[in-house]
Description:
The protein has helices at about 30-35, 45-50, 60-70, 100-105, 115-125, 150-160; strands spanning about 5, 20-25, 70-75, 80-85, 90-95, 110-115, 135. By secondary structure, the chain is an alpha/beta fold. It is globular and about 40 Å long.
Amino acid sequence: MSTIVVHPIPPVYDSQSEILILGSFPSVKSREQGFFYGHPQNRFWRLLAAVYGEEPPQTTHDKRELLLRRHIALWDVIAFCEIVGSSDASIRNAVPTDLSPIFASAPIRKILCNGATSYNLFQKYQASTAPLPAIKMPSTSPANAACSFEKLLCVWENELKK
């Protein structure tokens, strides 16, 4: 059964953020923890740490610090929607987030969408007003089990370090 859920997590960014990574909508685990990519099987934090040669962050504070230290902004494409659990495929009646505050205060030079759902929703709702096109990245979600960690690392590292 789908429920209407409002995005509970504010974006992470500052005036030094150069890369904006966009997910689709926070998972149940992320909503419970109050921070992005909270599912223990999601490879996002391990991947980001590997790209920059750091230990994977454990706390919300450490995750936020890693993002800001590496000039990465992080948010999602959807502000609220109907969703069943954490299933991106179940998202209905989506209302997009307003990305303009990030673009107005940070020198974003690249937008990376974490997975096809994020990318497709960005294209539908935000591409026409964004100052840059987005790049579709392979999802770090455990649902994308067909993509090995090594392949994820190669693709993400190529874009994050360009």
